[in-house]
Design brief:
Structural class: alpha/beta
Helix content: 40-55%
Distance between the termini: 8 Å
Shape: globular
Number of helices: 14
Radius of gyration: 22 Å
Strand content: 15-25%
Largest sheet: 10 strands, mixed
Order of helices and strands: EHEHHEHHEEEEEEHEHEHEHEEHHHEHEH
Number of strands: 16
């Protein structure tokens, strides 16, 4: 069978540990036999980031902006424990995801993958809930200060014009901790535009939630920019499409989400989105069954798995043990990137292949063949065979081959 041809390469960002192993399996068994794959390759493994002073991460993000579509493997963000594990590290490198999001000025959209065998923990949910997470600022770019005595903390802003504004944060009588965070109005506006565009592209209602009753200036700015963008640029398009936008407080949003049937986009600030996407994914099943795509306001895309590098499985794999890591999110990262590349380049065959890859994956699961995590979550009677990671990928490959013959 002739392989499906590509025009423009994908930006391929390789990663770490067990997901790096799965990455190679997915390419070898599910993509290369069917697609004449073209990629611009960047190795974002931790030690390579260290060797390049993390320049490789910035280069990969710039390539994603240039070529328009990227696919990324999960990567290690080192903490104190990782510094001990990897003594070669010259510093505690920042999250590659945060770097890429900052360069691309993107918003992260995470959507659960629904299967018949796993029922959502929230009984009313019937359709996926997509969490849109702002990918800049807030606590992720905050500065922290711990004191060993009482005193006064002030926040000072010195404008380029020379004007200075000072606020008293708090006077304390004893030791305290302080934190200052920020955001950029340009980034908030990009966040809003990405959310409105994604809602129109997927034909879904858009909810935005924050806490402007408490953070009147900070969260109020988010609320006002979203409303301004909606009224000035998107209201007519939303009404024509028959979809809605509304803002509400985040505590009210949570109550609404739990009572809903799903089928909408829930836009959240950075920290809120970090937490709520994990809550939504767990309530629908697991992070291994969730897509994640970073979308920039000018229509550039980076697809990835929503989960981490699966360290525990990796060390078992190094001992020669068969591991039952669920590869679905990694498979869907590749399929999503291939579909988008096909869509942007006018290659219907490539788009159709990406869809066939997803359908094959779901068909295997719905036939009762599952990795251990899904077997443990599935309703009684659905699972007929529990398989390890590579066996699952082989089953998907067989299904995909049957569809392409």
């Amino acid at each position: 069978m002739a392989k499906i041809q590509m025009k423009t390469p994908l930006v391929e960002m390789d990663g770490d540990e067990m997901t790096r192993v799965i990455w190679s399996m997915v390419k070898e068994k599910l993509i290369l036999p069917f697609v004449d794959l073209k990629t611009e390759y960047y190795d974002l493994a931790l030690l390579n980031r260290n060797a390049t002073g993390d320049r490789i991460t910035v280069d990969a993000a710039e390539a994603a902006k240039r070529l328009g579509v990227a696919v990324k493997c999960a990567t290690i963000t080192p903490n104190k424990k990782r510094m001990e594990e990897y003594p070669q590290l010259t510093q505690m490198w920042k999250s590659p995801n945060a770097t890429i999001r900052s360069v691309m000025d993107g918003t992260v959209f995470r959507t659960p993958i629904l299967i018949e065998a796993v029922k959502p923990a929230v009984r009313s949910w019937k359709m996926p809930i997509t969490v849109a997470r702002h990918a800049y600022g807030d606590v992720y770019k905050a500065v922290d200060l711990s004191t060993d005595e009482g005193g006064e903390c002030t926040l000072i802003f010195r404008g380029d014009s020379g004007k200075e504004t000072t606020l008293c944060v708090q006077k304390t009588e004893g030791p305290a901790v302080f934190q200052a965070q920020h955001n950029k109005k340009s980034s908030i506006r990009s966040f809003a535009r990405s959310c409105f565009e994604y809602a129109l592209n997927t034909h879904q209602d858009l909810w935005f939630s924050a806490k402007d009753t408490i953070a009147k200036v900070y969260d109020g700015e988010f609320r006002d920019i979203f409303e301004e963008e909606y009224q000035n640029s998107y209201r007519e398009s939303f009404e024509a499409a028959g979809i809605k936008y509304f803002y509400t407080l985040i505590d009210d949003a949570i109550a609404r989400v739990i009572r809903s049937e799903g089928g909408f986009i829930w836009a959240c600030k950075n920290y809120d989105g970090d937490v709520m996407s994990d809550m939504v994914s767990t309530a629908f099943g697991s992070l291994a069954m969730m897509t994640s795509v970073l979308v920039s306001p000018d229509g550039k895309y980076e697809f990835e798995a929503a989960h981490g590098t699966v360290t525990r499985h990796y060390y078992r794999y190094l001992k020669g043990e068969a591991v039952g890591t669920n590869p679905v999110a990694t498979i869907f990262a590749w399929s999503g990137a291939l579909k988008k590349r096909g869509e942007l380049d006018g290659l219907s065959g490539l788009t159709a292949f990406g869809k066939a890859l997803e359908d094959s994956c779901l068909s295997v699961i719905n036939s009762g063949v599952m990795t251990p995590d899904l077997a443990g979550l599935s309703e009684p009677g659905f699972c007929r065979e529990t398989v390890m990671c590579e066996e699952f990928i082989d089953a998907v490959a067989a299904e995909l081959s049957s569809r392409n013959n």
